[in-house]
Design a protein that fits this description.
This protein is an alpha/beta fold and 174 residues long. The protein has helices spanning 19-24, 48-58, 71-81, 95-103, 118-128, 145-148, 151-161, 169-172; strands at residues 9-11, 29-32, 62-66, 85-86, 111-115, 131-135.
């Protein structure tokens, strides 16, 4: 299977990514997808658990939100969390990931893209030369049709790869 379609790591949720595990992976910078990664598509805010995770992570890591969503909607979300963002990223094209890394002085060797879509987030990360971490989507049934249509091929590719879904970051990272 082509490596462009293979995440470096696959977890159930961002909540499985402890700060200590992210450090052991050699990371300093995180590019985070928004919809179905940090919140359900229709939600305006992340859950309390994800908000707490974001707060803990931002204490140790530089974070930029990267979304294919429209700038106004993603901007409201980013502003509410006081996080920088780039919207309308056109992932899987790596251009906006590279721009975010340049603008925020991120070392690609110490950066990961975390998202829920193999054919957007993982491909963009691979093309940009950063680590890719795939999470399970939060309420994918709420997505727009052009995102939902990619879910079946994504599941097929992941099944062919036999990539395990790691659930316990502390034990799995050792």
């Amino acid at each position: 299977m082509l490596s462009i379609f293979r995440p470096h790591l696959r977890v159930a949720s961002v909540l499985d990514l402890s700060t200590s595990w992210l450090r052991r992976l050699g990371l300093d910078h995180l590019l985070l997808d928004v919809d179905c990664t940090l919140k359900a598509y229709r939600d305006e805010q992340p859950s309390a658990e994800i908000s707490a995770w974001l707060e803990a992570v931002r204490q140790q890591f530089q974070i930029v939100l990267i979304s294919n969503g429209r700038a106004q909607r993603i901007g409201r979300f980013a502003d509410s969390l006081d996080l920088p963002f780039l919207a309308e990223a056109m992932k899987p094209l790596p251009r906006k990931l590279r721009r975010a890394m340049r603008q925020h002085n991120m070392d690609p060797r110490r950066t990961a893209m975390i998202g829920d879509q193999l054919f957007a987030d993982v491909m963009a990360a691979r093309l940009a030369g950063v680590m890719s971490i795939l999470v399970e989507a939060i309420h994918p049934e709420q997505e727009r049709w052009f995102s939902r249509v990619k879910r079946a091929p994504q599941h097929l590719v992941l099944r062919l790869q036999r990539m395990p879904l790691l659930r316990d970051s502390e034990e799995s990272a050792d």
